[in-house]
User: Fold this.
Amino acid sequence: MNDPTGHPDPGTAVMAAPTGEVVTASTGASPVTPASPAGSPSIARRIGPSDLRVFPIALSGNVFGWTADAPTTTAILDRYAELGGTFIDTADSYAGGRSEIMIGNWMSASRRRHQTTIATKVGKGPDNPGLSARAIHQAVEASLRRLRVDAIDLLYLHIDDDEVPFEETLAAVDDLISDGKVRWFGGSHHTGNRLIEARIAVGVLGVAPMIAVQNHYNLMHRTEYEGDLARVAAQLDLGVMPRFALAGGFLTGKYRSRADVERLRRGGEATRYLTRAGLRTLAALDRVAAETGTSVTTASLAWLLSRPRVVAPVVSVSEPAQLDAVMAAPSTPLSRQQLTELDRVSA
Assistant:
């Protein structure tokens, strides 16, 4: 039973429902139904009002062709698929297009195109910058060639281009949807007000609406989403795909001091979180991880998956072994007490 605030009772585990809402399973005397395995279709979530149902962790291709060479990229993609992953996120600007090429080569060689939802982004690519109609059409055609697909499942506007009227951008995307080259689209780096402006323009033009938004959101970076975007996402029925879901690696627990950052030669982004508040959050995650028999990484993502409208955090890894903790998050229930504690220390 829920309390008047809408939270489940303290002894209740919170798990992800297929469409992104939260369902509860009592942890009282009755046995709890085991969580679905990673590859089970029942764990999939629907993106907004679309027909896209995806595994609740999106694998980012931002390192493919950059810090991850072709063999490493293939190994990461293979492991992600083995663990039940179905949702790959990239952009035309990642590694100058090499990320899309590597993903396209992998899908062709593994014959997994029909089991994979592909999201890519346009607007930041060096060859077709901006969101004019011409830039969008050329960027999408180039992405289709690199990905070796006939259609992009989810196209993000990678920037908010205020030099181009929304009407022009929206009409261009709608043309691509009508032509069967794009199935659905969403925004990235858009404020709540701009998303509302876009929806108003959609109503005037009679074109396809956004169904998703990708935004910066994690335990260490909450205000941007929870202040404005959460309300707008609910109002517009947008699926939310948080990027920087692990705060540049800080929420994996690997970086507890500046010495850790220097020793591992990574995690420059994590340095900013080496504060009292950040270390308190890690301590709380340590406790939750111990209680659930998982890891700090898993607990961090499980918290994120409990948030309203969140469909699939976008997570990047540098080696296949890192995926095990990441992919365990959708089947890791957190109790109300655990969620409340993480809310409190990270506020």
Q: What stands out?
A: The chain has a mean pLDDT of 89. The chain is about 40% helix and 15% strand. The two ends are 26 Å apart (CA to CA).
